[in-house]
Write a structure and sequence with these properties.
The chain is mainly beta and 88 residues long. The protein contains no helices and eight strands. The strands form three sheets. Strands 3-2-8 form a three-stranded antiparallel β-sheet, with no helix packed on it. A hairpin with a 5-residue loop joins β4 and β5. The model has no long low-confidence stretch (mean pLDDT 92).
Length: 88
Amino acid sequence: MISYDLVVDPEQMLSISYDDDGAERTTTAVTCRFVPAVGPSGQKQIALEILWDPGVQHPSQIYYCPEARMHRMLLPPGRVRRIRPYRP
Protein backbone atom coordinates (compact mmCIF):
# COMPACT_ATOMS: atom_id res chain seq x y z
CA MET A 1 0.00 0.00 0.00
CA ILE A 2 1.25 3.48 -0.86
CA SER A 3 1.45 5.92 2.04
CA TYR A 4 0.93 9.61 1.44
CA ASP A 5 1.96 12.69 3.39
CA LEU A 6 -0.83 15.15 4.07
CA VAL A 7 -0.27 18.81 3.27
CA VAL A 8 -1.29 20.68 6.41
CA ASP A 9 -2.10 24.38 6.09
CA PRO A 10 -2.43 26.16 9.47
CA GLU A 11 -4.84 28.64 7.88
CA GLN A 12 -7.30 25.74 7.40
CA MET A 13 -6.93 24.25 10.89
CA LEU A 14 -9.27 24.51 13.87
CA SER A 15 -8.73 25.07 17.59
CA ILE A 16 -11.09 22.83 19.57
CA SER A 17 -11.65 23.29 23.31
CA TYR A 18 -13.28 20.45 25.24
CA ASP A 19 -13.94 19.22 28.76
CA ASP A 20 -11.56 16.46 29.87
CA ASP A 21 -12.95 15.25 33.22
CA GLY A 22 -13.43 18.78 34.57
CA ALA A 23 -10.32 20.34 33.01
CA GLU A 24 -10.60 22.33 29.79
CA ARG A 25 -8.17 21.17 27.09
CA THR A 26 -7.50 22.61 23.66
CA THR A 27 -6.39 20.64 20.60
CA THR A 28 -5.30 21.99 17.24
CA ALA A 29 -7.19 19.92 14.69
CA VAL A 30 -6.11 19.28 11.12
CA THR A 31 -9.75 18.41 10.45
CA CYS A 32 -12.93 17.55 12.30
CA ARG A 33 -16.41 16.30 11.47
CA PHE A 34 -19.57 15.07 13.13
CA VAL A 35 -19.98 11.28 12.92
CA PRO A 36 -22.58 8.76 14.14
CA ALA A 37 -21.46 6.95 17.29
CA VAL A 38 -22.78 4.76 20.09
CA GLY A 39 -22.49 6.08 23.65
CA PRO A 40 -21.62 4.05 26.77
CA SER A 41 -25.32 3.27 27.33
CA GLY A 42 -25.60 1.80 23.82
CA GLN A 43 -27.68 4.75 22.61
CA LYS A 44 -26.92 6.20 19.18
CA GLN A 45 -25.62 9.76 19.18
CA ILE A 46 -23.47 12.18 17.24
CA ALA A 47 -19.79 12.62 18.16
CA LEU A 48 -17.11 15.03 17.00
CA GLU A 49 -14.21 13.23 15.30
CA ILE A 50 -10.95 15.17 15.49
CA LEU A 51 -7.78 14.39 13.52
CA TRP A 52 -4.65 15.98 14.92
CA ASP A 53 -0.90 15.75 14.57
CA PRO A 54 0.87 15.27 17.94
CA GLY A 55 4.23 15.95 16.27
CA VAL A 56 3.35 19.55 15.36
CA GLN A 57 0.89 21.01 17.87
CA HIS A 58 1.15 24.70 16.89
CA PRO A 59 2.29 25.05 13.26
CA SER A 60 3.04 28.45 11.80
CA GLN A 61 3.58 27.41 8.18
CA ILE A 62 2.45 24.75 5.72
CA TYR A 63 4.09 21.36 6.34
CA TYR A 64 3.86 17.72 5.29
CA CYS A 65 2.51 15.20 7.80
CA PRO A 66 2.86 11.43 7.38
CA GLU A 67 -0.60 9.86 7.48
CA ALA A 68 0.54 7.32 10.09
CA ARG A 69 1.36 10.13 12.56
CA MET A 70 -2.22 11.43 12.65
CA HIS A 71 -4.22 10.71 15.82
CA ARG A 72 -8.00 10.39 16.00
CA MET A 73 -10.20 11.42 18.92
CA LEU A 74 -13.99 11.09 19.33
CA LEU A 75 -15.75 13.56 21.63
CA PRO A 76 -19.38 13.46 22.73
CA PRO A 77 -21.06 16.78 21.85
CA GLY A 78 -21.61 17.64 25.53
CA ARG A 79 -17.83 17.80 26.07
CA VAL A 80 -17.13 20.22 23.20
CA ARG A 81 -16.79 23.81 24.47
CA ARG A 82 -15.60 25.82 21.46
CA ILE A 83 -14.57 25.32 17.85
CA ARG A 84 -12.66 28.28 16.41
CA PRO A 85 -10.34 28.92 13.49
CA TYR A 86 -6.72 28.26 14.48
CA ARG A 87 -4.53 31.34 14.37
CA PRO A 88 -0.78 30.69 14.39
